[in-house]
Amino acid sequence: MKAGKLSGELLERMVLSALRFKRDDVLVHAGLGEDCAVIDFGEEVCLVTSDPITGAVEGLGELAVHVACNDLAANGGTPVGVQVVLLVPEGTNEEYIRTVMEDVHATAAALGVEVIGGHTEVTSRVRECVVSITAIGRAPKGRYVTSHGAQPGDDLLITKGVGIEATAILARDFGQLLPFEVTPEQIAQFTRSLSVVPEGLLAAEFGVHAMHDVTEGGLLGAAREICLASGVGAEIWEQEVFVPELTLRICQHLGLDPLALLSSGAMLIATPKGQELKGHLGAAGIPAFIVGRITAGSCPVLIRADGEGVPIQEHVEDELWRFFARLEEGK
User: Fold this and answer.
1) Which of 106, 140, 174 is the last residue before a domain boundary?
2) How many domains does the chain have?
3) CATH number at residue 248
4) Dist. CA 119–CA 18, nearest whole Å
5) Could you please report the per-residue DSSP string of 185-206?
6) CA 160 to chain centre
């Protein structure tokens, strides 16, 4: 199998089909497109999610915390704590482990989140450091959001723009392949945008039908997962998608599609009040763009600038993984 997360079809056939026991106090079970489990805790719900970082070299701790806490935010949850599993290859020095954990702690503390445990191991089973985080959050019982609530007629908004996480990774880890210089401050601007906790909480309080953080597969992958979870279709309007200038320059040089590029830092939101929510987020300093709408179809359709409609019927392979594969092949 190719590197990257399993397609929805493979996930359903090999993983989800094996999960048959369900508890009544679990309100949102494991499912296609869902970011978190939601557990009934009385007046509140507990949200739980897990995510690894496998596509970056530098800044692993920071990325890991943001990616996990972003899942909680996509369900309208406030992050409370994270548990960290850190697997490092034999020969790793103590300073490296210390640096990763300092990054984890600093990023979590900035979000008001405690590191509440985990596991650290040196093992010959990995060639590079792998960080996996389980994040736990809370939300009022009547206000959590899922990926499966999108309804035909809803506007689709995305916050900030596409390719945020991938731009930080490519500029930081592969800057030597670019024909132009990327400054540390430019990279820092993208890493400072990695959290979607502020917009997740604001959108949940505003009242929305569905949210999904934009990770592997980018905007197209996130739209497809919302459609699968909600049993709807969607139109994505290519001309309305904001691509940051540095992201566009990197994608043009490396031959990558920014709409299918790892985009932690962006939240995809389905709401019947798109313009109102855009204004609400903008007042809090969070740029948002209406990039499409939910339809009665069965999959998202990308509307190109020339008006051509391209159905997104298959699993969207992330462009970052495609780039890594090309590097391994020496192309």
Assistant:
1) 140
2) 2
3) 3.90.650.10
4) 26
5) HHHHHHHTT---HHHHHHHHHH
6) 13
Query: DSSP character for 88?
Result: E
Same-domain check for residues 36 and 98? yes
pLDDT of 318 higher than 80:
yes
- Does the pLDDT at position 297 exceed 70? yes
Sign of the four-CA dihedral 328, 329, 330, 331? negative
Local confidence band at 331 (pLDDT 50, 70, 90 cut-offs): low
State the greatest distance between any 2 C-alpha atoms of the chain, in Å, as a whole number. 56
Residue where the block lists tokens 């596509």: 55
Residues 179 and 102 in one domain: no
Distance of alpha carbon 34 from alpha carbon 18, whole angstroms: 17
First-residue to last-residue Cα distance in the chain:
20
Is there a single domain that holds both residue 116 and residue 166? no
Structural domain that includes position 187: 155-329
Distance CA 113, CA 35 (A): 19
Whether 316 contacts 236, CB under 8 Å: no
Q: Alpha-carbon distance 299 to 311, whole Å?
A: 7
